Amino acid sequence: MVLSHTTNRSSGAVVKRLITAMLALALAVSASQASATEGASSRPSEVNAPVIVKSLTDYPGRVRTVTETQKAEIREVIARLDGNTKFICTGARLASNPYGMNIAVRMRAKLVCEYAKSLRPDLSYWYQTKITTHNNFNGRVIVVSK
Question: pLDDT tens-digit profile of 22-75?
Fold first, then answer.
C-alpha cells in the first residue's frame, strides 16, 4: 500500500482503520480458539468467583489479637463471598524489620484466618508472611478470597 505524503490526515485515518481491523481479527481468532478448546477440557467448568482483597485496619501497638474492628471487616469480606473456596491471610512486613516482626505478622495472619474459619469452616485457609516495600502495609494483614 502506498500512502501519499500530502494527505497526512487521511493516511492517519487509514492506519487507525488498519489497526482496528487487525485487533478485531485477533480478538475473533482468540475467541474462536477459546470456544474450540472449551469443550475439549475434561475438567468441570469452574465458577468464576470474584477475587476479594482487603487490607485490614492496622493493629494498635504490639497487639497480636484480632480487634473488634478487624472482626467486623472479616465478617464483611465473608458476607461478600460468592462461590469463593480459598481464604488467604498475608501478614506484611518491611525487609528492614527484625525477625521478631516476621513472627508477629505471621501470628496475626494465623489468628485472622482462624477467626474467619470459625465463621466459614467450609473454605480452604492459608496464612503466610510477605515482605513489602510500602510502609503503610507494614504489620498489617491483607485478606484475599478467591
Answer: 444 444 444 444 444 444 444 444 558 889 999 999 988 888 899 999 999 999
CA atoms lying within 13 Å on the CB side of residue 57 = 14
Cell (9 digits) for 146: 478467591
Smallest CA-to-CA distance from 108 within 54, 72, 55, 59 is with: 59
Judge contact between 126 and 86, C-beta under 8 A. Answer: yes
Q: What cell was used for 59? A: 493493629
Supply the pTM of this predicted model.
0.66
Collapsing DSSP to helix, strand or coil, 93 comes out as strand
Residue 53, all three cell numbers: 482483597
